[in-house]
Amino acid sequence: MNTFENYTYYLPSYEECRAICDKYDNFQFYELTSNIDGYKVCTFNYRLTGYTDFLYPLGEDSDVKAFELRGISFVFNIDGSLHKRFILMNKFFNLNQVDETQHSLIKDIPIKSIYDKCDGSVINFITLPNGKILTKTKMCVDNIQALCSHEIFETDIEINKMVKWALSKDIMPIMEYVSPKNRVVLQYKKSELILLRFRDMNTGEYLELDTYPDVDKINTAVSESKKYNSWDDLVSLVETVIEKEGWVVTLSTGMMVKLKSKWYCDLHHLIDSICREDYLITKVLDEEIDDIIGQIAPDDLEVLSLIDNVIKVTTDYLHISSKKVENLVEHYNMNSNNRKDFVINYGKKDKYFGYTMAVLDGKETPLSAVIKDLKKYVFKLEQARSFIRKGDF
Asked: Cα(231)–Cα(109) distance, rounded to whole angstroms?
């Protein structure tokens, strides 16, 4: 990707999304499949991924990119043919997080727009072949955020009208669900849907909010474009602004960059104990490591090297361990589900057996069981450092 060229969006096909998941052994990139009203709905997501994973998911000799794989959904007809692909937001990065977002490279590129970053759950919509519209978070149509958002969609006349208008024109309205019941850091007084962006579902291009003729009747993200017009303005505010998560900046090339306020990061504990392995491992497990990297000076190579190593060791461990648990669960299911025999044969006092029993009891998934136990172990700094050295515990 070249920072100085116009940004282009690679919208993968279902087959390409599946190929990416298969290449990563369905771990860093994975698929969730559900059946709704008899229709197959497949949604993709990612975790514990690095920049090159997005840029070259199938290798450097392939043109396929993975920047869309959080929340992209495919809905199929009863006969198995594709009904439609629905996109969310492409993956974009914090200021100074990756090469293309280094302040030294982008500071002179004209800014197209600046919007306040909302602090809730991102929402988009899908339609079924029977015409039903569903409200969706990154992965689900039936979690609490999706269900609350759907209630707003159903009862708010203007939002309902806007969503139907957009979908009829192959435009995706991307919204944020904010609520006192869905608090992250910022406090919101009521539950509502805030319009963030419109996207052309065929090209991925982001459209101006006034593309919708009645946008003034919709609650939209606050634009700061008239107030600030340079990176210097925003960077100077990072240290002092309060009650604001940060900004999403779109450059004239179309590339988007995130910038978070120090106030928000401090409250969210994103920059505390930056050189502590226990802290960094936990942030990897909570998928908050991106925000930490965005707070580190690009020439702080020692810290960046430490973070890279923590990410790799932790990800490798989660992958290997969760696969071992999956294999034990499969073995149990294929061998008459006799728990007594299973305990006799595999009940040695090792963590994989304990993880497996938690999965069989319906309390955990293989990955969540491994993460839960690892978090307990790395709670102490000395043990966290030992884990990073050995890659196991």
From this structure: 9
